Amino acid sequence: MQLLTHATDNVHNASAALNEAWRLLCHCDDGEIPPCTGCISSMEISKWAGHAFVRLATKRPQYTSDGIEALEEDRADWPRGARRGSAGVITASARIYLANGDLDQAARHAADAVRIATDTDSARNFTLAFAAQSATTRRHGL
């Protein structure tokens, strides 16, 4: 019983920490790139932020619209020449639309991500994109 209470407390503490981080996110931009992320391109950070929004939205639906908006911006800004990396952004888009219940949009993005992953021969992207496509198909009841 004590272990269950401890686990429940950890969930509540983690949830409170995420909420506080989300509140602070709007106030943290000082215009400087933190040294620990200075070597990572802004498009890669945006891609992983998109994945984070998906994770948040699956447990806290209030983050869904923010995630959709962020991922739409990511897709619009993603360089055409970075085709292989775009599969991650498109897969995250499929997952956020799935979380939002927009199955048609989720299916379109998942199919695009699978096509890009196949064309670029990326096993990691294919695995993630195919999982999103399978989840969308299951929700469609096909």
What does this structure look like?
With 142 residues, the chain is mostly helical. It contains 6 helices and no strands. Helix 3 (64-77) packs antiparallel against helix 4. It is globular, with a radius of gyration of 17 Å. The relative contact order is 0.10. This is LuxR family transcriptional regulator.
Multimeric status of the protein: single chain
Rg on CA atoms, Å? 17 Å
Beta-strand percentage range: under 5%
Order of helices and strands: HHHHHH
Terminal Cα separation, in Å?
Answer: 42 Å
Helical residue percent band: over 70%
Helix/strand class: mainly alpha
Give unreliable regions as ranges.
Answer: 1-7
The count of β-strands is: 0
For the biggest sheet, the summary is: none
The overall average pLDDT, rounded, is 79
**Helix tally?**
6
Characteristics:
142 residues; mainly alpha; 6 helices; globular; disordered N terminus; LuxR family transcriptional regulator
Describe this structure in a few short sentences.
This protein is an all-alpha fold.
Topology (elements, then pairings):
Elements: H1 2-25, H2 42-59, H3 64-77, H4 83-100, H5 103-119, H6 123-140
Organism: Streptomyces halstedii
Protein name: LuxR family transcriptional regulator
